[in-house]
Amino acid sequence: MDVLVRVVRKSPTVFNSFKSRHQKLHDKWGENNETLNEGMTFYLKYLGSTLVEEISDGESYGDGISTKAIQRVISMEKSSGKKWRKVALNVSPRGIKMCDMISNEMLLDVCIYRISFCTADRNHERVFAFIARNTINETMECYVYVCAKRKIAQAVTLTASQAFHIAEYLEEEELERLKSVEKEAQKRLCVEDLIEVHDHGSLSNGYHPKLSNSVTSSDASTPLNLSPPSNSPCINLQEFDEDNLDDCFSRLAENRIRQRQPSFGTDIFNEDSVEQYFKNNKRLEDFVHQKSVEDLLLL
């Protein structure tokens, strides 16, 4: 939690270049990994969700799409008259989790790479919403929440944005580590090949590969290429245990998800009120004093 707060305070806007983000994160990255992995929890009221249309490359959900989706959810909730769910929303570099505060039921668990857009809606000052790809039918949905104050909606939006940037940083670090492991495996494999050739001797010293009886004389006259193709990577499978392989497959799946949708976006900038909110750390207190009647009148 402290690490996410530091990242938000250090970033002048959420639209900084990746290079500046990388430097900011790298300076104090390893101070408290355990707290960072837990993320930050916000206490909100869940209005509901609605489907949104797919967008083309270069377009943004901030171009009126999110506003219409939020208004649609609010209109449906006003007409239904049902009581809104009180939820705890945990935001971390792994994604967003939503838990019912009464039943403790896990209502939503979205990977960070499935989230395409988040916003503190300008037309409804206490509303936070994010758009993500559904894990069941792969449709895009907008999830809408009511916050106790405008600055809480801004804080959740900024935290989600920074969590995405941290996840990008972690992925780059992991890719660099895997590249290093692969290089070491290739070097080790080459050394083992040299030792094997030295032990058995060269072909000119009497060592010949035994050909099967099915090989014809014309085939035998053709020199055999015993080396692997030049474009095939040499990977020593002994370097990877079962956990590492599972991790690689999970990362591959996440990368495929990312390729199917636009980059993460938001329409909010860092503000002094958000920083003050982090300093006071009154998320639960603000939520407790929130009243459903007031929520309905303000929407």
From TrEMBL:
Renumbered residue ranges of the record's region Disordered: 205-226
Domain PID: 36-167
UniProt cross-references to InterPro entries, sorted A to Z: Adapter_Engulfment-Domain, PH-like_dom_sf, PTB/PI_dom
Pfam families according to UniProt: PID
Record field: compositional bias (Polar residues): 211-220
Top-level taxon of the source organism: Eukaryota
Protein's name according to its UniProt entry: Autosomal recessive hypercholesterolemia-like protein
Lineage, opening ranks: Eukaryota, Metazoa, Spiralia, Lophotrochozoa, Mollusca
Record gene name: ARHLP
